[in-house]
Amino acid sequence: MKKLYNAKKNNMSKVVALIFHLFLFFLTIQQITFAAAPSFSGSAQSQIKIKETRAIVHPIAFINANLIPMDREVVIPNQTVIVRGDRIEAIGPTAKVRIPAGTMMINAKGRYLVPGLVDTHVHLGAEVGGRPNFGDAPLFLSYGITTVFNLKGTPDHLSWKEKIQQGYWLTPNLYTAGDYINEPRFITPEEVEKEITKQAQAGYDIIKYHELGIGNDISTKIGLQKTAYARMTETAARLEKPLIGHAPHNLGFNALIEAHQSLAHVSELVYLYFFPEKLYKKRAMVSSPSYLVILVTLIFLAIIKFNAKIRKHMAPIDPNYLREILWLTIVLVVLGFLTFFYFTRSINTFLISDNRWPVFLFTTLSIFFTFASFRIIILTRRLLQKPPYFEFIKICHLILAISTIAFSFSLLISGNIAWRHSTFGLKQMSQQCREADIWVQSTLVAGKALARMNNHEKPQMLQDPDLRYVPFPLKKRWEYWDELPYSSYNAYFYKICQETINALHLAGSPIMAGTDANGGPFIIPGSSLHREFQLLLECGLTPYEVLKTATVNPALFLKKQDEFGTIALGKRADLLLLDVNPLVDMGCMKQPLGVMVRGKWLERKQLNKMLAKLL
Description:
The chain is α/β, with parallel strands linked by helices. 50% of the residues lie in helices and 13% in strands. It has helices at residues 2-36, 137-142, 155-165, 189-202, 226-238, 253-259, 266-274, 277-306, 308-312, 319-345, 356-384, 391-420, 423-435, 444-454, 458-461, 472-479, 487-507, 527-538, 543-549, 552-557, 604-612; strands spanning 60-67, 76-84, 87-93, 104-107, 112-115, 117-122, 145-150, 173-176, 207-209, 212-214, 217-222, 243-245, 262-263, 440-441, 511-512, 575-578, 594-597, 600-603. Strands 1, 2, 3, 4, 5, 16, 17 and 18 form an eight-stranded mixed β-sheet that branches. Helix 4 runs parallel beside helix 5, helix 7 (266-274) crosses helix 17 and helix 13 (423-435) packs across helix 17 (487-507).
């Protein structure tokens, strides 16, 4: 009986011990799940308010993965990557890497592990029509975007950063600019320096320069004056804060090169270089009045030439002189018209010509104009030395001579602009940008959206399935967005943006993939980056080069290459697991099998649930 009692007692102890161990195992699983799969919602209070578990850090191991580390163009097969906390702890062949006890195992089964993506140009928050409290985070994470650059920030965004860093929110990593540096908010060099210093001390990561525009007219943009602009770049460099923004249209391309200022849109470089505001203003001020005078003079001379009644009331004019001055004026009018035609049909429709055509055209025009100008000056001088002629005739010829010289000057300006529109000019611009270390955010998807809208494709754009995740008020705003005039203007403009990206790439200038998400019509957070990838491929970049623009390059721009951008020991665990090799087919990146952000693993099923809660 005693033996039976002892046996029952031992069995009971084993049962209790088993229940206790099962209870501990259940708690462990709950902690892993709690840390890795928090819930999202699409409401104003949607963002995660639950602090990530830190008491017990369980490693996560990806085994049998094809690794694309992005430090070079290579696929390394059969690799294991171990993550502990938010850092990569070990990398090596699956057969050789020792996996710690208690590790959560993810068998990649030959699938591809790549660094998390970066969208380097987004706008976040209710101010721009997005969701408050980083409520758009599921959109970014679902499409593999683990880091974003917010290019217009407020103190609220600094609060977001703090909550993310402390583990209260599970969102992409956030780097944010402060408010724009521009005129008239800051005018003097001292005001500019004070504001940048204030933003740096507050904790903003990026300085954003943004000139003011009036309507859609690029010639009316207002920017900082030269001394204030120089102080801006000097202060940002001294405080080691990356500076990016719009182009200094009022100062010109050379000012940009001297300042080494990076650009938030490739379109800003296109406007600044191919359509320089300063040169256009000079040309407009000189060419139009002088051409009008030449044209009026031609009409006046033709009347004198072919109207005998008028000639009777005038002092006798040498017919040879009249014939020569008339033909010279006709030549000037024709050449002036050719210049105008070239500008309106070629330059003003954003075409890049080959090397020879613009150079040949404007060299020829310049030679003819120079000859005609000198000949008219000589004839006018002779006319002035002959007193019998009416003073009115003398004044007309003197004005003609001055107008000819003025138009010749405008032709030199036109030649400069036309030369910029050649492939040779495009190549030189790209080389100058590379030598000045100017980084350019592509934002091609923004230009493409405008081009499609002006091609009357808005009905098709409204059928985009990704629009269902956009907040209703913002979607309505896009639906009623006024289509810009001149549909061909935007279509050609997008083409020249593509050519510029290609030239920058060939020159070795650093490019970052950015979308301007929420900053323009139909630029949807998350999915727009993958459209940007497709547009970059169309510009001539390879899949590896495109992937660099959204991984390696953003980290280098922020000088945080030791933090993220590649898969390496000690770096932040921002990873994507893909079904297909993205170096062969980038389309697979739009639907990653899973996303890891700061060591937190989210499977596709969880990502889909996050998206569903935004509906």
